[in-house]
Amino acid sequence: MINPLREPDPWTVVVLASRRTPGLAEVVGAGSPRDWDERKGYGISGAFLVYTGDGLAKFSVKVYLWEDAHFEEWESFKLIVDKPARGVRPKALDIYHPALDDLGIRSVVVEDRSQLQPHDETGMWFSEIKFKQFRAPVPMLSKPEGSTAKLNEPTAEDNYDRVQQALMKQIQNPTDDFSIIDTLGGL
Is 129:61 a contact under the CB 8 Å cutoff? Predict the structure, then answer.
């Protein structure tokens, strides 16, 4: 991921369908939603959760304009996010911004675009473009496994850890029987 402290420029624009946004662009509300189906039973406290796949992210991009050149660039850029003509099927657009790339969002459709409106009394204007992530469906049905974590009880990661745990048990409950170490394969 591009570090915004070392390289702030890529964070100030969004590249949509190979076109850079004019002025300053701010990505707002992007995330990586997950879809879960909650299955309860009659008279049962709790529920089973079934992961039904990755959700589609919704977010917006605010484009701020304050110079004559920005407004001139906006005239051609807004054609990308305007409604398509009647009878023309809208298409997904490639998008790039470091924050979106970090979330795996690379293709979007336009949900809405606001009017160009004043941001403040300094002469800055903005338009908000609402997007929804586009991603072709793939099978993704699974149920999460229950937690196996036990408080204050480490779980063995490999043979070395298993032998170490066996030795700790033997120190806590000493016997002359070393067969537990032999069955684990020793070190």
Answer: yes
Work out the number of other CB atoms within 10 angstroms of the CB of residue 103: 15
- Cα-flanking dihedrals φ and ψ of residue 84, to 5°? -70, 160
Q: What is the pLDDT of residues 69-99, one digit of tens each?
A: 999 999 999 999 999 989 999 999 999 999 9
- C-alpha separations of 166 from 11, 151, 152, 158, 162 in Å: 53, 18, 16, 13, 6
Block residue for tokens 């946004």:
21
**Residue-level pLDDT at 162:** 74
